[in-house]
């Protein structure tokens, strides 16, 4: 099963040297996930580029859905055999990132 481990940008309160350490430590956890063969993909939303909504006819509207919370922060998808292992990896990332992580089952589409 694949799991999405994520955090919103507002959760990241580290600054300065602590932010540098969080980046270094979180990349080390990702390298461990790769070495363990559980890493699928990861990254973060580039918040310098604002979102747009694109309709079926190609109309572009500035901003995301007005009723939805903003989609930002960092994301990692891992393939793991159990929720317990997913929780353990989420805890490792939380410690490295210096902020809580959200854990969700990722609805992977095998036809993609």
Brief overview:
By secondary structure, the chain is α+β, with helices and mostly antiparallel strands.
Written overview of the protein:
InterPro entries: Dimeric_a/b-barrel, YCII. It holds the Pfam family YCII. It comes from Pseudoxanthomonas mexicana. Helices cover 32% and strands 25% of the residues. The two termini are 16 Å apart. β3 and β4 form a beta hairpin. The chain is an alpha+beta fold. The strands form two sheets. A four-stranded antiparallel β-sheet has the order 2-5-1-6, with helices on one face. It is globular.
Q: What is the CATH class name?
A: Alpha Beta
How many E-type strands? 6
Residue windows where pLDDT falls under 50 for at least 5 positions: none
Looking at the overall shape, the CATH architecture is 2-Layer Sandwich
Total helices: the number is 2
Strand order, sheet with most strands: 2-5-1-6
Shape: globular
Question: Which keywords apply here?
Answer:
single chain, 112 residues, 4-stranded antiparallel beta sheet, two-stranded antiparallel ribbon, 6 strands
